[in-house]
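Exam prep: given the inputs below (a chain plus NAP), describe the expected output before reading on.
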Amino acid sequence: MQSVAVGAFGAAPALIKIAKPVPQAGQVLVRLQASGLNPFDWRLGDGILKDKLPHSFPLVLGVDGAGVIEATGPGVRRFKAGDQVVGQFLFGRVGEGSFADYAVIDENAVLSHYPNTLTATSAAALPTAGITALQLCQRLDLPVGSTVLIVGATGGVGSFLTQLAVMKGLRVIATATHDAAAQMRALGAGATLDYHETTLERWVNEHVPERIDGLVDLVSDATVFTAHLALVRRGGVALSTVWSAQADELDKRGITGGNFEIKATTQDLDVLVTAVAAGKLAVRIDRQISLADVPAALAANRAGGARGKTVVVM
Ligand SMILES: NC(=O)c1ccc[n+]([C@@H]2O[C@H](COP(=O)([O-])OP(=O)(O)OC[C@H]3O[C@@H](n4cnc5c(N)ncnc54)[C@H](OP(=O)(O)O)[C@@H]3O)[C@@H](O)[C@H]2O)c1
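Solution:
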């Protein structure tokens, strides 16, 4: 079967043939129909978890995936052959990922059933970016009507977070390069700002002189994130998904929050599947690609410019 893998940490991902996996005790074998691409995929190839979990090489990349269970290993209780599932193909070991025709995964991984009203493409876009957005939104413990600035809003996480924050009654200001402004407004952003044309400081000082209540920064390094804290009012919340928050800098400004780390659960994935199936949450698909396109798409994602989700269709 075809898969996209790296042969060593930091190596270029490549399309390779490997043997179809066999489900062991407690595992299911999924015939993948679609896989969502995330920045986490190339970070895994770079070795972000190399000191935390065992890895198998060639390291098949891809975390998010949706498809149909073809077989189950001994002792599996939650699933049966023929079930349509979506989840994260990462459970205790890195390298048996979803950029492949088939993958095995433990039945206790983050894995949900999804209804026929969802396409595999929409389902596969959900797990990592959707759960991150849902949990970020839960950390935005702010009153209805509060203003939240999302930096890096036009990609996977930001497209979901914008909608979820608006549903919670927050007013979203989204950074958006000019081509993406209309898209972000369609997702519910009350205002957009193009960081190529103005600075966040200038924009906030002009439009929200009382300062913002919440900041979710999906892209900035520690120096830039710390500078952005000046835009947040005392008592507000600031979160970084890229480990840029320094506790002392937040403390001295009376801001709560800090670095965010996803703790993915099947329950949260169920919430997202239900919201999409009910038409309450839109899945913004940027590009649909094939497995052969994945190496180039990973390189492109590193360079920026995502507009919603890139999904691999098998
Ligand atoms: N800590 C965690 O648990 C966790 C969980 C999930 C994701 N993450 C991280 O969160 C980040 C976002 O994830 P994602 O899936 O949404 O990524 P993505 O889909 O690649 O989107 C990133 C977006 O940021 C925009 N951007 C880049 N530089 C920017 C800047 N200086 N100012 C404003 N916008 C900028 C990009 O568009 P333009 O280049 O056109 O501006 C792109 O739309 C990634 O670094 C990911 O690894 C962390």
